[in-house]
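Schema walk-through. Below, the input block comes first and the output block second. Nothing else is stored per chain. Lengths vary across the set, and this one has 203 residues.
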Amino acid sequence: MAKILIADDHVLVRAALARYLSAATGDDIFQANTLPTALNMMAESGPFDLVLLDYTMPGMSLPAGLARAIKANAQQPVALLSGTAPPEVARRALAAGACGFVPKTIGPECMIAAIAQMIAGEIFRPDDFFAPEASTRGPATGLTPRETDVLRGISAGQSNKEIARNLDIQEVTIKLHVKTICRKLQARNRTHAAMLARDQALL
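--- output ---
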């Protein structure tokens, strides 16, 4: 059973990934929401078999933040997680000593395989992400004020019902807004939309 630390300030993503990995692999999963918190956990409970760091969480930077994490984890594997970082960031992370770069949008089976690969001491780099045609799209535009309000609710972890109550509109209208938001942001689902909103500073 591996001991893994997931450090990500997006509570929905972090909790969902932790639950999935724990259920699917039986690994012992720890969680942190900032780099300083992760560093403290590595000092007190580490080293971990693998540390997954969100690229944009508070305190994180390249290469300094990554170097601190690698040192704190006693040279055990440390990888970067990201929802929207471009290939150039991934290349910089690998060059700075990361054992991998894991897009948050990869499939569940690929995620498990990537984690096993990195724990085994190998480097994980998704080939399709590094392909020449990989997107470097900038911040999305075109959201209406109401769609921005809905996106803010999604990012806060609210359900459609909660957002509808807070904005005093019908829940079915919220569902339509969510679909439109995902289309405009090219997001796969509401969680991905929330990641894009945070990483691209849309709110």
